[in-house]
Design goal:
Length: 149
Amino acid sequence: MIDVIAVGTDGSATADKAVELAIDMAARHEAELVVLSAYNSQPSALASAAIASAWVPPGPLGPEWNPQEAERVEELLAHAKDRAEERGVACRTASREGDPASVLVELAERHGADVLVIGNRGMQRRMLGSVPNTITHKARCSVFVVKTT
């Protein structure tokens, strides 16, 4: 029996498809949905260099990127929760700072997930560090990988 479905999101199109499928699964199984995400409050090397030199990089690494990361994640989670609740699915959210794969595995376990839904972004690379690949190897629950590419 599937009582708790967890889904990881980072706001990408791939993750959005995983969230949509997880909402559908939760509705069909009358399960609770837990939407999970990870954030990093430390700037990347490029952002650190930009801050040190007072140069503002173009695109998503601009000045709003690093300080807003945790807040951006909370907005993503709130949006996903609203989508689930609009479909009549009970939903809660959780996030934590850290490596995305480790955070998703740990939070899924903490919330008693029977299945963890993730998008396949990065799966085709077959290289160390792929978030979906790491999750499929470390999760203690079943993992449902949504083919999005």
